[in-house]
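*** Backbone structure tokens ***
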Amino acid sequence: SLEADRRAIRVRIAGEQRWLAVEDAGRVRDALGTALPVGVPEVFTEPVRDPLGDLVARYARTHGPFQAADVADRLGLGVAVVAGTLERLAASGRLVQGEFSPGGVGLEWCDAEVLRSIRRRSLAALRREVEPVPPDALARFVPAWQGCSSGEGRSAQRGVDGVLRVVEQLAGVPLPASALETLVLPARVADYAPALLDELTLAGEVVWAGAGQLGARDGWITLAPADLAPLLLPEPVESPGPVAAALLDALAGGHGLFYRALAEQANLAADGPVEDETVTGAIWALVWAGALTNDTLAPVRTLLAPGVRTAHSRRPRTPRARYGRYAGSAPAGGSSGRSLVPVPYGMGGRWSAVPERESDATRRALAAADTLLDRYGVLTRGSVTSEGLPGGFSGVYPVLKAAEESGNARRGYFVEGLGAAQFALPGAVDRLRAQARPVGQGREAAPTLVLAATDPANPYGAALPWPVAATAESGGRGHQPSRRAGALVVLVDGHCVLFVERGGRTVLSFSDEPDVLQPAADALALAVRDGALGKLAVERADGLPVVTSALGDALTAAGFRPTPRGLRLRG
């Protein structure tokens, strides 16, 4: 009918008959050399500016991602001719090139507007596929995603490579030094030993830095792979004072110096003797300010265990020995000799300045977003807020949104009650949904975990709110759970069952079910016996004397012994 109305014509293209709108007659003739039927009006055979470009662009507008060979077959042209036209259209912004289709078919072409439409519809379809899971599924998912085990050798990470992988996942997050090697790393690395981390720091693959002091002998520690340290370590805090300034000047340019060389630089800068106590105090001030680091964590370990001393640390020293590398007096007996000046206890190792931080806020936000996704798998506003990142969730939101548009992350309502702005790695969503199950089902196979309250694997007080305490008395003043340094949580099947205050004298329970409370008490006792907590003396539970509470019965069954003040267990 259209042919009879002279609105369509029949032509041969690529060896087969095609129907063609009559207004495209001149375009097809000039681009492909196609013979036109007799009687085509002259107005439809006038030359156009870019006939081949028009045909190729039309193909792109009406197809999804394609290769140059597809267009060449359709138009009966050589691939090289079509490829040149495609590159010309891409230069004008009408086409884009990339790997769009699943299955790895190679580089493809796609109309820019078509690709945007595909992305919009794909994201909408992915969001519809995911039904939100209850919060307890996230509580089970986060520790499993970070590889935390119950201390029974089920951790997938082992050896130096395992420690490096854990450092990559925990990069940039401040952790209490007292919990780093007693709770955080042992929960993730089977048979963890401090030598494993020292091997990485000595090799220059991992950098540690302080991020604030906690009392006299503890502080916040951040770890990061060396190549990511400038992007992820917190900004240093200025540490005033002439001795601190002299130490930083001595370490400028990437130098590493032992303690005695640093002390000599302090003496030179002060133009007079400086006591070792002053130098040591300046070093620790710079450490907690995030400006100074060491090639091992041995000084931090020594600071955490102040009661340990060695014969070398008690060796008597002459006043002159404090200011020079060697004491110059001859030993008793008349023979000449020089005695080595002892280094203050716990200040061994090579000290160096922490790498200078990246000043580009965009690059820091990009690195932070990548690390947060790797750390949590499913990222919520509360998880980001709990880490105290500069700019908070809004600072990394543009990067997360761009990651969604590029297909590197998914946004959706994955967990009930945590807001719509949730982002997840593609593989994490299925693992999260696998953790959703009816209450109590699978509890016998679920791990019971003892974690530091500040551990990123503990979702409570961050992504999830703290549960309601088991008794009304526990809600009194001074008995509220929080993510403070030194506090512990015990998770059973993802549920927070116990919260142990710093020092262990007060414990809150969030369940009165014996089949939940007893495994939590057993896990707490096991952590004490393994040496992770030292001794633990519990005086009050849920606002009451521990010996009169249900938790007291569970602790007694786990091996705690009664004392005049409460229940105690030694490591």
